[in-house]
Amino acid sequence: MEIQENQHDQASSETESVRSGRVGFSGPLSGQSSGPPSGPLLGGNKKSSKKSARFKNEEYVEITLDVRDDSVSVQNIKGGDLETSILASRLERQRPSSLGSQLSFRLRQVSHELRRITSTSSKRFNKDDRSKSGAARALKGLQFMTKNVGNEGWSEIEKRFDQLSVNGALPKSSFGQCIGMKESKDFANELFDALARRRGITSDSITRAELREFWEQIADQSFDARLQTFFDMVDKNADGRITEDEVKEIITLSASANKLSKIQERADEYAALIMEELDPDNLGYVELYNLELLLLQAPGPNPSTNLTTNSRILSQLLSQKLVPTKEPNPIKRCFRGIEYFIEDNWKRIWVVLLWLAICAGLFTWKFIQYKNRAVFEVMGYCVTAAKGAAETLKFNMAIILLPVCRNTITWLRSRTKLGYIVPFDDNINFHKVVALGIAVGVGVHALAHLTCDFPRLLHATDEEYEPMKKFFGEERPDNYWWFVKGTEGWTGVVMVVLMAIAFILAQPWFRRNRLNLPKGLKRLTGFNAFWYSHHLFVIVYGLFIVHGYYLYLTKKWYKKTTWMYLAVPVILYACERLIRACRSGYKSVRILKVAVYPGNVLALHMSKPQGFKYTSGQYIFVNCSAVSAFQWHPFSITSAPGDEYLSVYIRTLGDWTSQLKTVFSKACQPSNENQSGLLRADMMKGENKPKLPKLLVDGPYGAPAQDYKKYDVILLVGLGIGATPLISIVKDVLNNIKQYQALEDGLEGESNNGEKGNAKRPFATRRAYFYWVTREQGSFEWFRGVMNEVTENDKDGVIELHNYCTSVYEEGDARSALIAMLQSLHHAKNGVDIVSGTRVKTHFARPNWRNVFKRVAVNHVNQRIGVFYCGAPTLTGELKRLSQDFSRKTTTKFDFHKENF
């Protein structure tokens, strides 16, 4: 590149004031760019002979600048393209400063920009040559403006500028908040620096006009503008080249913005991988066209996520919005809503209606009975209401035990066909409904006695009291204390107090410690308080029987029916607890492996108790005497029935689980590079085996997830630790795949030997979709082995695995663009995902559940899909609603099952 300079005083030094001058820049737009352009002000000392030889047969551009005291103007441009013109015109918009440093900076900027144009003009993609699919992916893969960042428009950003500016300028520290990127402050600061470098801004604050320029550039939807902005963020010294150190720095920044600590730890390795891919000639740097190549040739969507079905079904499904259209006729709309409600809840409806009918029948029967007695003349309808409510109380106190007879429910679910008409999955919900019925009964019974019939008895005349003497004695009660001090009174009061304690502490606000209570009161809440208060039922039932025996108005023993209601349920529940105590006594297990994982998760691998059989999706109760000899806590089984061990994964959320983790962590050691987890204790290896606390297990017990065998196609959705029962299902399906492969190999061998095998194929799910959504990158370590085992053994693609990390910004966001590029490179070369550390590629942000259901519906027309969800209740409503919508709008039917979590 040639630099021609005509100044009034050519002998002036760098510190001397230059009043005016004209500077011309010229050079080819193609060819090598191995060094800085030559010229007197840029330190180039190339000889003219070499220079002229280098420029031979090359496109040539000449820019002539007019340098004045306080301005620089473009006088002439010969050659070049539109980008060259934009570069030259940008020089006229620079802020004035000392002319010496200004001129030097501007000339350097021009040379850098021209060198970038030179190095990429012959190498980079022609816009006409870009494939439509590649460009489309690139446009989606590098967006600074997303639905959460800067989408409000300039007016909103200008308002925030007014709020955040100091003396008319916006500080760099507030730039992220101003454009809507406040969650990624470091990334926003790097974006600020890149935009400022491009404009020669050295200040840490910008004016409103400069912010408008910044915003217009990051809002530019063209691919070239986005690419250049991202390239400038990486290119810290603005030389048009990215070195390995700069790549490492932007990897660390992107990983930090997306909360990917493990990628930060391996930034050196990943930077070397990018340089190896984009710098095959070992030049030590990459340029803009390399980054463009990487974006345009990035792998497309995972083939497993494509819709594999005929176009007719796909177009028919896509033409439907799959949202129930609003019926204009309110009567028809009402009937349709009732129809859908009955269709979705008919099992619950008939059970609740039967329960309500029995309660209403008992209340009416006792109400009529006491209306025809002599006491009605004194106490009136008060006593009939009290006795009617008491009769419903007897019934509800009896049946409330049935939903928690877990062994019985598990047997009925597994061994009978009652599951087709009885919603066993709602056993705890029905337990709560009955508890509400008990609360209503207690309220009506107590209020009717205390505020109505007792006052009427106290104020009755002697004549009115005469028929009541055989019930209350010769002397009429004179105050309330007479009723309270009697057996009927104090037992009732104590029962109400104990029931109120248990009912209040069972509410989710107290049971899950959601209330901000003082420290002293907070100790009285939580799961432990719920567990112990619920066991007050033993005292309550004892008092209930006594209360029902010492009745004021009933003296004959066979008319005192409280014990009759309670006999069968109490005996059944007592047998359940006895079986549980006996069974857990000999079902002590031997700890095989302990691991502590990121996210406060404790994994326990135990030996199987003798005769222990279970189905995937079921759960067990675990007791650790080192923590509490009385408490038993339920945990889903993560091992498959075909495994030689029993395993559970426990997340520390409360007092008991925290103490359990502490006890086992003491026996663990830091894991090595070949092991997962933070701490481990493998009892199968080594001679120095640590002493571990004793565990007892009880179970297994039935759960909604165990019904997966009823479906040929299943959709499994797990949130965080909620994936535990679903992992067991995935492993069970995988084990059956292995069995079937072994069976086929055996049959093939027998056929080759002329023998015919008669072995039957084990149950086989035709298709399984597993979606695991978690917030933390470290969570993927929990089941990394299972993921890899599935990908290695599932040759026919029966199981489709999808991991989602919600801490990473959605695919297409510039903050996760480099992570996506690096993920594609690393997976293509090594077959391992950089986010999860498994062979399964991780998706970013949250799934679009409507698209998930749409794809399953398209792939499995006229089939019934079992949807199994385990996790926080926040997603329950959406998945249930989508199951209903797609079942009504398509020929594919979705049966939704939620695990009690």
Describe the structure.
With 901 residues, this protein is an alpha+beta fold. Strands 19-18-17-16-20-21 form a 6-stranded parallel β-sheet, sandwiched between helices. The protein has a 5-stranded antiparallel β-sheet with strand order 12-9-8-14-13, with helices on one face. A 4-stranded antiparallel β-sheet has the order 1-2-3-4, covered by helices on one side. Helix 31 links the parallel strand 17 and strand 18. 33% of the residues are buried. The N terminus is likely disordered.
Strand and helix map with partners:
Layout: E1 2-7, E2 21-28, H1 48-54, E3 60-67, E4 72-78, H2 82-90, H3 99-121, H4 132-141, H5 154-164, E5 170-171, H6 175-179, H7 185-199, E6 205-206, H8 208-219, H9 223-234, H10 244-257, H11 261-265, H12 267-278, H13 288-296, H14 311-318, H15 330-371, H16 375-379, H17 381-399, H18 406-415, H19 427-458, H20 462-465, H21 469-472, H22 480-485, H23 487-505, H24 508-511, H25 519-522, H26 527-534, H27 537-549, H28 562-586, E7 588-589, E8 591-597, E9 601-607, E10 619-624, E11 633-636, E12 645-651, H29 655-665, E13 669-670, E14 679-682, E15 695-701, E16 713-719, H30 724-752, E17 767-774, H31 784-793, E18 799-805, H32 817-830, E19 842-844, H33 849-859, E20 864-870, H34 876-889, E21 893-898
Give descriptors for this structure.
901 residues; alpha+beta; 6-stranded parallel β-sheet; 5-stranded antiparallel β-sheet; 21 strands; elongated
Q: Which runs of at least 5 residues are low in confidence (pLDDT < 50)?
A: 1-58, 93-99, 119-139, 299-310, 754-761
How many β strands by DSSP? 21
- Strand sequence of the main sheet, in spatial order? 19-18-17-16-20-21
Helix count equals 34
Distance between the termini: 70 Å
Mean pLDDT: 76
Structural class: alpha+beta
Helix content: 40-55%
Beta percentage is 5-15%
Shape: elongated
Question: How is the main sheet built?
Answer: 6 strands, parallel
What's the gyration radius in Å? 38 Å
